[in-house]
Amino acid sequence: AGKGLPEGGTISLMCGDTDAVTMQVSGGVLVLDTPDGGRTLDAQDEFWGIKISVDIGAGTYTFMLNGKTFVRDAPFKNKVEYLDRFVAVTPDAQIGGFEFKHFYVYTGFIVNEWFFGSHKTVPDDWTVIGTGVSVSSENISVSGDMYGLKLDDVSYTSECGIAKDISYSGDALKTEYLFFSDAATKDFGASLSAGGAEIIRVCADGTAFGYRTDGGFVRLYTLKSGLWYNVMLVTEGSRAKIYLNKKLLAEGIEIGGRADNVKFSIGKAATGKGCVDEIKICEIAPEPADYVPE
Hints:
With 294 residues, this protein is an all-beta fold. The chain contains no helices and 23 strands.
């Protein structure tokens, strides 16, 4: 939503005609309607980057605006068993409207980060490592998106990046993201760790793309300058697979543990620039057992 919003306009997540989460424009600011009263969020900006994560079973939601968490695990405005409607309404007596640049609905993700927001701040549910970390529009042109994570590391003595703890119950995990790097950037990539110890790192080292476990760097591909790449890392028990642009490059990689943390960074002994966007982490359901129909 942008400037010129109609006074009294509302945006809601609903079950039928019942509001579960509702925002309203009041006095030129965005107000979240909560069970304990309205919560003022922000004045009108060029655009608001809104992210709402809901737990249907618990009847709660977490609300983020421009990377800042305003409400965490708050109860729905009204109890609902599911959500089936997104509704934006302008009042009859006002002139104006809502404009939506991007609208996405997803389910089942452990992490789903697109770095929305016009304030260019790193979402506060990530831990920032070092300096030179920002949300930027530079080089961000994937899927029409406006912003992504930018890393600009100028120090050989410190790491630069973001990290987050993760948890899951199954045996298989998929970590997928997009990255763009300068040809001179060293050790730029993603790491999975268990108990504080890195179990695998998928990274670009200049134009070389590959991985590192407990040994040296294993080169898998030569990157071309100025291109975005899609990376998918799949871990299944003690083994891992690596895909680049949906093509399998390596499998059967031994890893030492069950991941409980993910990190995107430029390494401590390296410098350079790089961008990351569209981070998606989810469990992979086991394949159904083969059967013969009766």
